[in-house]
Amino acid sequence: MDNYVNLFSAYPLIALLGYVLGSSNMALYLAKLKGVDILNSGSGNPGASNALITMGWWAAVLVCVHDLIKCNLAVWLAGALFPDIAFAGAVAGAASIIGQMYPFYMHFRGGKGFAAYLAVTLALDWKFALCLYAVLIVILVASNYVAVCTLTTIVVVPVWFAVRGRYTEALLMLIPSVVMLWKHRENIERLKNGTEIGLRSASKGEHRSKK
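User: That's the sequence. What structure does it adopt?
Assistant: Structure tokens below.
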């Protein structure tokens, strides 16, 4: 009985740990330093893509590096603090993606989770993640749209874990996948209409007002 109590008390703590770490938003920090209203500029999304649109490549890179570090830290720290709890790292990782998308101190208006999702995938299976990154680069160059890479990723990753028999991790990654699909509904609509901001346009800073 005590083991079950410990499990039920541990998982919420692990999820909270991941969520809090994931809530850190570098795009917002940089925007404040630069005097940019990132929530009302470009796509209006406080993530790497809009950092690129509103502040340039250097900002987008810093946001991606920050997301990589914080999400890997969530997975590692959960495993280190809760070594006897199964899938502690995966729970914290999935929660960190949710934190990236819905940070409490930004009225739950955060990024769209793509960089965080890639970071957690790297932490859970680095060999697969590196192969995925290579494929995504090809897709990005061919399509010119980050949203296409995102949609590809949120489908492929849970399927990969399921095929490998890692069903719990597949389920845990499916949760942020579903949320990200909802968060990207406007991107999907713009892709259909041909009005989505492409990477090449974004890198030139051609979009400065909220769509």
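The first helix runs from residue 2 to 22.
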